[in-house]
Amino acid sequence: MEFDPVLLARIQFAFTISFHIIFPAFTIGLSAFIAVLLMAWRWTRNDKYQRLARFWTKIFAVSFAMGVVSGIVLSYQFGTNWSRFSEYAGNVIGPLIGYEVLTAFYLEATFLGILLFGWNRFPPWLITVAACLVATGTAISAFWILAANSWMQTPAGHEIRDGVAYPLDWLQIIFNPSFPYRFAHMLNAAYLTTAVVVLAVGARYLLGGRHIEESRTMMRMAVGMIAVSATLQLVIGDMHGLNTLEHQPVKVAAMEGHWSGRDPGALVLFGLPDEEARTNHLEVAIPNLGSLILTHDWEGTYLGITDFPEDQWPPIANVFFTFRIMVGIGLLLIVTGFWGLYLWWRGRLFDNRLFLRATSHMWPLGFVAILAGWFVTEQGRQPWLVYGHLRTADGISPVPGASVAGTLALFVFIYGIVFATGIYYINRLINSGPKGEATEAAAGVPNRPLSAAEEATREATGRPANEGPGKPLTAPKG
Amino acid sequence: MEWYLPVIWAGLIGTAVAMYVVLDGFDLGIGILFPFTPEEEERDQMMNSVAPFWDGNETWLVLGGGGLWVAFPMAYAVIMPAFYLPVLGMLLALVFRGVSFEFRWVAKPSHRMWDIAFAGGSIVAAFLQGVILGGLLQGITVADGQYAGGAFDWLTPFSLFVGLAVVAGYGLLGATWLIMRTSGPVQALARRFATPLLLAVLGAMAVVSLWTPLAVDRIAERWFSLPNLYLLWPVPLAAALVGFGIWRWLKQGREGLPFAGAILLFLLGYAGLVISNVPYLVPPHLTFWDTAAAPASQIFLLIGTIFLLPLVLGYTAFVYWMFRAKVEPGEGYH
Predict the structure, then answer these.
(1) Burial zone of B112 (CB within 10 Å; 0-12 exposed, 13-18 middle, 19+ buried)
(2) Per the CB 3.0–4.6 Å rule, which of A103, B16, B86, B302 could disulfide with B64?
(3) Ordered alpha helix ranges (H), A45-105
(4) pLDDT tens-digit profile of B145-158?
(5) Helix ranges (DSSP H) in A281-352
(6) How many CB pairs under 8 A join A and B?
(7) pTM
(8) Residues of chain B positioned with their CB less than 8 A from the CB of A72
């Protein structure tokens, strides 16, 4: 059987990175949320913030573990599957990844220990500081990854000698032309995605009449965050689009389904792009609106897909559709945010059943939008690995296709099991809710100070008071 | 060309790998010892003794791999395809093991699967790390700066033997860590396993020390030519003395010294491997000068490393110190 190593390596990378990105996106937002909750707790001394922080910390821990393990895989895949790319770009991208490890990974991983295990051992301020450091670490990590990714999209600050990239100016490499837009877009997407999950969980509890006080806090915080960040995302996305038009015009043409640069661009709401016929079937479009958005001129023109040689086209339909999914979700979230604000203003945020029911199902939207966005930008970069410099087909490792196929099958199988289970467990944690958190804390499964009665039992018997494997202690609330 | 830059980087990556081996070594060792007790409470305690640290420990693996890419992209681009299957196998094993830290607690009471995942993942990851090390020691086929061998070149009796040796070694680190950090039945279990594991490790070190010079002339010459013979004999002697020391300390029931001794033993073994192979990163083809990244890249990251690495070591030590108390049964955050 013949295996195409390039295609398989691409599928393997796309598969592993798609799984991976969900978790960092969530934990970037969640760690910031937890840090804010803990600061609110220190500031107001209201214990609901602490209950919420501890509840979300458990979900954070499970998500973070999945992000870490899938991320370690990725860091080695550059070498296993893309060794020629690693050699080509190692001088430039390598140090960025190195800085990510030194400035972010250790910070997150080390202080996570205190955030998770320190609750009844260390003073609250230390837990709060640890939470802030973890949140900072996740954002710094995004900074470096987006710098590396942006360099692959809009390479700058280097020169090519003998088929290898050499750095000339690190500031230009890091702050390459598309970096600020990508970084802002991704970071904001992470905060938005987490806010949507928080909103969905709050709505779910309120519908079930549980955890009322905590849910109201979650809903208020989430609605405010969504209204702000979803709107902001539209603005950042627009600026990012203009930047892409400047540096990767064929990608924008594919996103828009814009075939010929002689015509002003229409805003294609729907259509079925056809690469053979070089047109969209069943097109529903608003004439000239594309030109207005991209050139800020009703009659403005910009390059279309057919203005480029066919061997430089990205997969048109994939880019076209995933772009619509991302934008569609973005617009839906803006509506949701303002609908929530309106209800809040009218004092109906917590009892409008329609809003609660709708938002309780919305939790996956942010993740879908992020994945779609990555598909747009990464597939839109094809057929290049480093845009305009290194073709994807020239970046792979000298590894037999069968090895790539075998490990791909393993990845699908193992990630399928591991991550499906992980998401199931997160759901289970969400079902048990923050109230369960408080009673469980008193029940003694976590690190709590032993009650006096137990202390006595302990001293008398030399053994802890709990008996039988796994049976939680049933001490009264201390 | 700045000849010293690759040397500094080789030293830094060597340090990162040593940190990884010691830190994730005891951590994987816990998983290796996991199948030897069926008691849930003991397993909880074993896992809790490393739960706050495992993530930071594993970051050294990323620094080692990432550092290799930064400083020696060509070596990275040769080694990774050469060990394609064991590297990806090790990573998948680490996936299983890493998530089981969290999953196991959420899954309770039906967490048997994650007990198996934790133990299995740890054993497979340790074994494959040894296989990769063994494969590297025996040499890689390189042509035109690219890996030019087959998918299974790494699979030899020697690499499998080194794989087993690493499992035993990590088991020893795990056992001595548990002696230091726990009490009661878990500590007793660790004590029972520490001595046999120590003997296995010493035996494996002796075998590797004889096997490599017999198989590879270059290594034989390194150790047995003059004046090297006079300069290098303290390394195996020290290893033997430390091995004897650990054995004594275990017999005396000491709690901290066996772990310190096990670390020292690892470092001496590591030093032996370094001595055998310097200056090759990809024996016997590529030295660290051959594969070095552009000086500008090495300098750029070096500047940051000079400031950041001490910081990292500082707060890592801080967190280890904060959690220095022995882990009691029933303790944990879940």
Answers:
(1) exposed
(2) B16
(3) 47-81, 83-100
(4) 788 888 888 889 99
(5) 289-295, 316-345
(6) 248
(7) 0.86
(8) 58, 61-62, 91, 94-95, 98
Contact A276, A402 (CB under 8 A): no
Q: Which residue of B has its CA nearest to A97?
A: B66
Inter-chain touch A102–B59, beta carbons under 8 Å:
no
Backbone phi and psi for residue B330, each to the nearest 5 degrees, phi listed first: 80, 5
Shortest distance between the Cα of B244 and any Cα of chain A, in A, equals: 34
Separation between Cα atoms, residue A26 and residue A124, nearest integer Å: 24
Substitution target from A58, A70, A102, A445 for chain B, most B beta carbons within 10 A: A102
- pLDDT tens digits for range B68-91: 888 888 888 888 888 988 998 999
Residue A107: count of CB within 10 angstroms of its CB:
25
Do the bridges between strand A384-386 and strand A390-391 make them parallel or antiparallel, or are there none, so unpaired?
Answer: antiparallel
Token representation of residue A250: 């064929």
Confidence of residue A290 (pLDDT cuts 50, 70, 90): confident
**Which residue pairs, CB below 8 angstroms and at least 24 apart, start in A220-225?**
A220/A344, A220/A349, A221/A33, A221/A36, A221/A195, A222/A195, A222/A196, A222/A198, A222/A340, A223/A199, A223/A337, A223/A340, A223/A341, A223/A344, A223/A349, A224/A341, A225/A191, A225/A192, A225/A195, A225/A198
Q: Is A74 on the interface with B (CB under 8 A)?
A: no
- Geometric angle at alpha carbon A152, from A147 and A155, rounded to 5°: 90
Q: Specify the pairing of strand A164-167 against strand A158-161.
A: antiparallel
